Amino acid sequence: MEFVIYFTISGMCAAAMFFAALNAARKPGEAERGPFRLEEPAAGPQGDAAASGPAPPAGRGRSGPWRPAR
Amino acid sequence: MRDIALLFVLFPMLYSCLRYVHIGAMFWIWTALASPSSFVFGFLLELPLNKLAVAGACVSLVVDRTKQRLFFDSPFMLHTLLVIQGVISVTFGLTEIVRTYDLLDRVVKVWILALFIHLANRKREQIHGIIITFTLSAGVHGILEAFKYIITLGSHKVQPAPSIGDNNYLAMMILMVIPFMLYIAKYSAEKYTKFAFQMMALFSAIGLVATASRGGLVAGMILGAMLLVRSKRKATGVLIAIVLGVSLVTLAPSSWWDRMDTIKTAESDGSFMSRVASWKMNTLVALDRPFLGGGYSSMEDPRVFRDYLPQFGMLDMVPTDAPVGPLAAHSIYFEVIGDLGFIGFALFLAMLASNVYSVRRVKIACRGRKDLEWADDLASAMLQMLVVYMVAGAALSAAYLELFYVQISVLSILRRSLAENYGVKAALPGIVPIGGRPAAGALVPAGWQRPQ
């Protein structure tokens, strides 16, 4: 039993490496494959835009007395 | 039969390793942490798997065109200085026992592995791959013990692979991978993978009980509290803690409770007081040789031990009996003090502190970024691992533990990944690039010129 568990977990390691190789070879835009693929990251502001807070809804500017000058 | 089965595992690993440099790092970590040689009896026993992995990784490093430029950040810089201090201490040290050179060999190998990890990885997928590899490779030992413990209804006595050490080392390794099991479970898209890693974390907790390590119990309680504080679903966390606690109270054998009860009477416990005596002996070496120490494991050399024993009474703040023979250091802190002197100790503490600082930089960088929640969670797992190492390591000779140096290497590449791939300026301070060419659009630290 000891070796079955060891073999299973090492097999998972081997699978992780094999699918990592497959995914490294995939074309741009192609989805990740295999059991260890990552969950898609939540969409959010990128770069330094994040520092200025969440973006306003589309079609509307910021409101309030501290809104940036147009 | 075992050897043939393991060959089936080895083939995809070797193929992938030769194809991509970052998978070379994963293969290397697997051979270093999973100790495959201790699970086979036939022809694979003779095969130097670790050397094979190193050779494969080096070939992939030469062939691969995606390798990254090397960075030196403060934790890696301090790690490097610690290795240099080790080489100097051994060269001018007090001892020439085999163990000293084994440790030097291991320390240098671990540093080369850390360097390789730094060179080979930068993307999130690559970081994820490294985490999966070290979690499975180090976690397998705890899971195995948990199964044996359950099947024998708690009467199994833990005997880890020789490359790990005793039950206390295993307990520390288990605790150092549990946060990463939970991290992988959280960020895997496949529900079966999520479930598998959640189950692994549960079995690892059982494995921790199986080790009957008192230091492990204390560090485990601290880790549990940290996980609970970090959890978004605290009520569920408390419920799980209660269920686990009640299961432990009802299922753990009386021998386990007898062992844990000795925590309260540490001052009269022979095992603990012999550790205090060992700490004193290591301090004596450092007081005598503050800049160099005695070299790796010098206090395990009977000749060095005899030389310092007459001064044992100098450190009588905590009264203990004089040790009767050479002792292991039994503490990451006193181990470094005795082996590398106060200079080495300062470097070691600075390295631990700089890793905590790195965690803080990552957390600051991820503030308000929903798309970087994974990095924030990874930094938290790193912090939990660091606390476990600093607490459980206080009573173990584990200053040169491979797993720890692999894990802090991942923290370094996480910082650089945030700077290079996600445009996070806050992750940059303290990083010094060495040669190479930055990726298009990558941020570079102030004062560094892009190569023309």
Q: What is the topological layout?
A:
The complex is a heterodimer of chains A (70) and B (452).
Chain A: H1 2-24
Chain B: H1 2-19, H2 21-33, H3 49-63, E1 70-73, H4 74-91, H5 98-120, H6 124-151, H7 167-187, H8 191-211, H9 214-230, H10 234-251, H11 254-261, H12 270-288, H13 302-308, H14 332-366, H15 373-392, H16 402-421, E2 431-434
Antiparallel strand pairs in B: 1-2
Helix pairs in contact in B: 1-2, 1-3, 2-3, 2-5, 2-6, 4-5, 4-14, 5-16, 6-7, 6-8, 6-16, 7-8, 7-9, 7-15, 9-10, 9-15, 12-14, 14-15, 14-16, 15-16
Describe what you observe in this structure.
The complex is a heterodimer of chains A (70) and B (452). Chain A is mainly α. In chain A, 33% of the residues lie in helices and 0% in strands. Chain A has one helix at 2-24. Chain B has 452 residues and is mainly α. Chain B contains 16 helices and two strands. In chain B, strands 1-2 form a two-stranded antiparallel sheet. Chain B starts with a helix and ends in an 18-residue tail after the last strand. The relative contact order of chain B is 0.13. Chains A and B meet through helix 1 of A and helix 1, helix 2, helix 6 and helix 8 of B.
